Amino acid sequence: MVMNKLKATGLFMIGLLLVSSTAKNVKAVVLDDAQQAGSKKTSIESSHKGTELMIPSLWWRQLSVTEGGQLAYWDTEKLKELGANWVSASYRPLDENNKFVGTSWVIPPGMIERVMELAKPGLESAHNAGIKVVGTSDSMQFRPEVMVSVGINPELLYGRDLAGNPIKIDAYQKGNYMSCLLNPYWQDIETKIGKAHAEAGFDGLFLDLFPYTSGEGVLCGCEYCKKAWEAYSQKVFGMAQPFPSAVLDLNRSVDRTFLTFRIEAIYNFMQHVEQAGKKYNPDFKVMLNCNADNPTMAYLLRLGMPQPISELGQLNAGEESSLYLYRMIESATDDPLFAQFNGPNQYMPDYKYKTELAEAFAGGGGLMLAAKNDDLDAVNKNFTDFLNKNKPTYEGAVSEARVGILYSWRDHTFLQSSAMKRTDRMLWAKNSARRTAAILASKGIPYDYIFVENGLRKKELSDYDVLIAPDLKLLDDKDAEDIRKYVEKGGRLLTLGTFGSLKSAGTDYLTRDSSLLKSWTGKEMENGYFEATLGKGKIGGSATYAIGNSESAMIISDSFNKAAGYVELDSQLKVNHNGNGRVESAIRKNGSARYIHLIRYNNRGDIGQKKASVIYKVPEQYKVKEVTGDSPYSGDMGIQWKEEGGSLTVNIENLDLYGVLKVELEPSAGLNRIFNTRRVR
C-alpha cells in the first residue's frame, strides 16, 4: 500500500500484552521478562556471510487460471519463466461459485479456510519449482460487515481515538476501520490467520500496512493500550506515567520511551503470530511492509524482525539513489532487504525499473519483480538470467567498502524529528545518514552503514579507511572512546554537522561540557570547517554537506569537499564518466574475486556518452590476475585495464545503466591465500 496516502487518525500497537486464545476463550496475558523485547537484546552480532541468491517477486490481487482450468492466486509457470524463487501473493475470498466476496484487507476465520484450500494446488506446484510463497494479511484494517458475516462482533475490534470513538480509515476504501494490535480479540484473529497459512503450506505471512501511519501518530486511546503503557512505564520509571494526550514530543524522555514501547510492541505481536505458524512450519516467517528508512525499522531489526520489506514510493526511482536502503539493512540483519513498487506510476518509464533492479541486487538485497506486468517480462528475464549466470557476484558475496557511515537508530528516531506524527518514513531534510549516502553515491564512493548501538568493535572499525559521522549528536562515552582510538591508530574521521554533543544517562540525554573535537585535539570548528591530526590519524569536519530540499536538487558544500579531500574519502575507488547524470558504486567480494558494481542514475533515461573509467586501490599484498566486464542491459562493456603501483585502472567503452567489473586477485609473493571473512555488523 502507498503509505503517504494514509490520513486517518489513531494508532494502536500492542505493548507488553499479547494473546493466548482458544476457539471459545480469548484473554490477554503478560509476557515474562524472557519474552519481552525490551532491553534484553542490547547488542546483536551479525555475520552476514552471504546466503542463497533470492529473486523475489510480487503477485497481488489477481486470480489466475492455470492449465486444466485450475484456479490459482499466482501463476507458477510465469514465475518460473521470469526466474523468481520467492513470491508474495495476495488474494480475495471466493464463494462456492468462485465469485469474489468481502475484501482483501483482512480475511477472517470463517473465510480464510476456503482461500487456503484454493491455494494448496498452487503451493504444491510452486514448491516443486523451488519457489517460496508468502501470503498476505492486513495488519489492522478491516470491514465491519465482513466480520459480521462470519459472526464476529466488530465492536470488540475497533481501535479508539483519544475521545473513545472508533477509528475510521477511508484512504484505501471507504468504510474501512482499524483495529488495535494490542486488542486480544484482534490478536486472536491474526494468530488464526497465521496458523491457517502455515497449515496450508505457506512459507510466511506478509503483514501489509505499516501500523504507525496515521495523522495522530502512535496514539490509540483504547483500554488495552492504556493498560499496557501503565505496566511498561511503571517498569521503566518506577511509577506509571500518564498516557500521552497529544503528538509525541521526542525532546521528552517519557515520549521517547512511549515510542520505544510502541516499536517493541509490534515486534512482540509479529513474534506471537509467527510462533503460531512455526508449530506447523519451523521456518515460517512473519514480515512487515514498511519503508526501510522510517524511524522505527532499525530498532525492529535490532530486536530480531525477520525478512525486512520496504516500499519505494518515497523515492523518485532512477533519479534518486536507493542504495542507502540496502546498505543500512545489510548492516542490521542477515536477511536481505526485499523492496517493492506499488504500481507502474512508480517505476515507469522502464529505465526507472531497470535502475532499481541494479541498485537492489548490487546493494545486497533484491527488488520484487513486477511479475504481473507483461511489458516487463523481457527486462525481468534478461536480468534474472544475468543474476544466475553470475551467481558468485551476488550469492555469498559481501561488502568490501572502505567507508563506513556511523548510524544511530536513537539519533535517527529521537533527535532528527522533535514532533512525531507518523513514523512510516523519514523525510530527506531529517535524514542525515541518507543525505550523506546520497553524496557518496554521487561521487561513486562505496560505503557501508555501521550501527552504533551494536557496539563499535575494534576489529570492525579497522576494516574502514574512513568513518563518517553525519549529524551524530548522540554518542555515549564508550562509543566516543572507541572512535578516538580508531583515529589515533591511523583511521580517518569525517564529522558533518554536530558531532557527539549529547550522551545518554538512563532515559535522559545530557549535553557534554565541551565538544569531543576540542577535548580530543584542542581545536574547534572554525568558519564551518575543521581539520586536525590525532595520533596517526586525521579528523576532517564540515558544518554543512548536502544543501537543498531533495536529492535531485542537492548541492554539495565546498567545506564538505575540502574536508573529504583532507581525509582522502575516495582513496579506495575513483569513478569518472562521460554522459548524463551520476554513477554510483558498490564493491563486494567473494573468495579471490572483487566485484565493482557501477550504476547510472539521475539521467532521466538519457545516458548520453557511455565511456567511463575507474581507479581501484588493490588490497595490500595482492595483485590483479584478470578483469572482465559484463552488463545485463548491454553485454560486454568493452574494457581495457592495467595495474601499476598497487592501483588498477579500468577504461570502459560501454557503461549502460548497470555494469559489473569482475576483478580476479591473486596473492603477491609470500602470501598464500585470500580470506573472505569481512562482514558488517
UniProtKB/TrEMBL annotation:
The keyword rRNA-binding does not apply. Residues 401-505 form the Beta-galactosidase trimerisation domain. CDD domains: A4_beta-galactosidase_middle_domain (cd03143). Keywords: Signal. The keyword Signal applies. Residues 1-23 form the signal peptide. This is Beta-galactosidase trimerisation domain-containing protein. It comes from Paenibacillus allorhizosphaerae.
